[in-house]
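Take a protein:
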Amino acid sequence: MLIRWKTATHPSSLLLLATALIACLLLQPAEASLGDRLPEFRECVEVCDHENCDPNNDPTPIPLHHRLLFWTCAQECDYTCQHITTTRRVESGQSVTQFHGKWPFVRVLGVQEPFSVLFSIGNFLAHQNGLGRLRERVPSTYPMRWYYEVFAYFGMASWVFSSIFHTRDFKATEQLDYFGAGASVLYGMYYAMVRVLRLDLPTPRRRSILRLWTVFCCALYVAHISYLKFWRWDYTYNMTANLIVGMVHNLLWSCFSWARWRETGQSWAIWPSMLVAWIMLAMSLELLDFPPLWGALDAHSLWHLGTIAPAVLWYKYVLPLTTFEETLLTVHSFMIKDSQDLAKAVKLKDIKA
């Protein structure tokens, strides 16, 4: 039986070449699934490898755009046989199964999980546009501006890593995705605490607390990635750790927004609580693990889709918040100045008397 993948794949291009260069590091096989153990799948891969990959048997050339994304002959056979096996199972009334711990996605432009890549790029653009609005509308004198900008940078970096990982799933790209997401989530908790306790204000006590909080969060992140990298690559632990940190982050902003809403009575003040509910609802999609619709749209990609709008709305919330707080800081500074002037006037009057 001769198997050629050229008629089983979709047209491809050179997109995402630069980001995929990282994928050559630390290559390791993925975990086994039911599909890997199916006799028909194994036979298909064996025949395909013999007919297409044997250097002494006129091997089938791999298209340039696939080679640029590090597709090897063996991986081309594996991909083709996944879909041949899946098609036959569906035609015989059997369920779709996973291969190597993942659903059999349809490749688009050489990209393994096209919708996850697309929605990751959407999240990146949300943070990039938010950063632009911050720089344009938030005064450089506002103490929290730097923290908001760093939050945007962490967000952009994490979604770049997510795009790379979903383009080509290797050990190195998986680590980039996990470490980037962990850093982004942890920084979210870090700067939320800074904002709620106003650790950004230049008082001796606040500066001391800020230094301790910074060291603690940095140590927490180093311990997190060290455990995953050097001790055990544990998916359950990673998910649990990110979930706990994310919940603390969400709780901080929920309490803060409720207090701000009671103080101002403005609708924008309650946005964080609404966004937290939105994100929690989107996160629940991760529990609905189902075979990808049209071979490309799965629960994980929908989770990425669900986080775009909250990111956009978050930056819209930050703008009125900074305006409100800038007004408070200005009024506070004038009150301090008036008090100082009054004290000087009283002191001068006493001296003259």
